[in-house]
Write a structure and sequence with these properties.
- The structure is a single chain.
- Helices cover 2% and strands 46% of the residues.
- It is globular.
- It is an all-beta fold.
- The protein has one helix at 101-105; strands at 2-8, 14-21, 23-28, 37-42, 47-52, 60-64, 68-72, 92-98, 108-109, 123-124, 126-129, 162-163, 172-189, 199-206, 211-215, 223-243, 253-263.
- The longest helix is centred in the middle third of the chain and has 5 residues, at 101-105.
Length: 265
Amino acid sequence: MKFTLEVQNKEGKTLASAEGENRLVLVYPAQYEEGDNLIIKTSEPKAYVILQLDDAMGEEFVYCKEKEYCFHIPFAEKKTSYSPKTFAGSMHVLTVRCATKAEISAQKNLARNRYDQHENSSCFPHACANVETRGEAVFAARNAINGNCCNLSHGPWPYESWGINMQDDAEITIDFGRTVEIDRMVLVTRADFPHDNYWQQVTFTFSDGSQMVQALEKSIAPHEIPLCEKKKVQWIKLGNLLKDPNDPSPFPALTQWEVYGTEAE
C-alpha cells in the first residue's frame, strides 16, 4: 500500500508532503493557517489504516473507503470541540500506516473516529445527525464518537457533546462504511444535572431492518447495552429519544456512543 500525506493551503497549494510504502511520517515545521487542509491518499480503496493527523490527538484505526480524505484544520468556533493543544504551535507530526492483521481482527470500539468531520464521506466510521444545537461545533454529531467521555458539564472541550436543540425527532447515525459484526454498545449520556434532562427510553435501528428499544436511567455512569445476539450491520441509527416528562430541563444530550465488535469479513 502506498500512502501520501499533504498539507495544503486554502488555494490548494501543497505546503508539505510525504510518500511511503505501508507507512510514513510527515513533520510540518510551521503554524497552520485558516483554510489549511490535510490530504490523505491511499493507492487502493477499502484500506484499514492507523492514522494520526495530530500528535496531541494520537493514532486512530479507520477504514478508508475511498482513496482520498480531506481533513479541514479547525479554527475559531470550529476548534471549540477540540483540545486547545491540537493543531497548535509550529511543529506537527502526522503519521499513517497499514493496520496489522491483529489490529484489524481485534475486538474494539468500531464507532470511534477522532478525525471525523461533517464533510467526511470516505474515512469511517462517520457520525451524522438531523439536528445539532444551533449548528455549534460543541454540539456536533462527531463529538459522540471522538472517544471523550467527560459528561459532567456542557460546552467547549472537554465537555463537547451531541446536542439535539430540544428537537423531539432528533436522530443520530453511525455509518461504519463496511459491514461489521457487533455484540454490545455503550451510551454515555450527558449528566450536567440539573441543567440536563435525560432519556428514559431510546430506539436503535440497525441496517438489517431490526430495531431495539432500550430503557435508560438518570445516571452519570455509562449505560452498558449488550445485544441478545451478534448483528452484522453497516450502520446504526439512534432515535425516538424519550426524555423524562417530569424533569423541567429540556436539554438531554449524548456525550459518547461506543459500539463494540469485529470486522465481519
